[in-house]
Each structure stands twice: as structure tokens, then as C-alpha cells.
Design goal:
The protein is an alpha+beta fold and 108 residues long. It has one domain. The strands form two sheets. It has a three-stranded antiparallel sheet, with helices on one face. The radius of gyration is 15 Å and the shape is elongated. The protein binds zinc ion (ZN). Zinc ion (ZN) binds next to loops. Zinc ion binds next to loops.
Amino acid sequence: MVNYVKKMELREVEVTDHTEIICDCCGKLIFPIQDNDERKLDFRGRAKYYHARSGHHDWGNDSIDSLEYLDFCSLECVHKQLDKFYKEDEPYSDTAYFEIEAESTPEK
Ligand SMILES: [Zn+2]
């Protein structure tokens, strides 16, 4: 459980300190939003993107080490990654999970 707490603290630091969000599938810059970005922005100038949490439960308490946080610029990239994740994971895990949440980029 100590491990788990440490990981969560690390994540907090990553989230609050980040100045850039990059798509883990295609490498596109999600934030800061560039002038030539074609995504629709909301009234606060934020764009929608997707945040995922993936991992598996195969290692008991150590499964926390399989946890990965990923960001995606579009649903297309989510689908690509999801396909890859389950194909690659198939021979190795029956407990793999891939949880997706829609998010908005921070305000400029
Ligand atoms: Zn992408």
C-alpha cells in the first residue's frame, strides 16, 4: 500500500507541473493549443481530449506497477491505442483494463 501512495503523489506532481500534454498515440501537442489546431474550442478556449488509465491485476499488490496514464488527442487515437493494448496484452493478461475519461485542456 505504501507503493500505491507514492505513485499517487508522483502523479499529482506530474499533473500540476505539466506545461505540455502530448498525445501518446500520434505525438500531437494537445496542450498548449497551437494556432493551426483544428479542434473545436469551447467558450473558454479549451479543447476536449481523452485521458486513460491502463494496467492489469495479474501481480496482486504489485499490479500498481502496471499502471500507466495516457493522453489522447482524439477518439481515433483512443481506438488505435485500445486495439494495440488488447492485442499486445492478450497472451499475457486476463485482467487488463483500459479506462477512458473525456477531459478539457487547461485554460490558456
Ligand atoms: Zn493523437
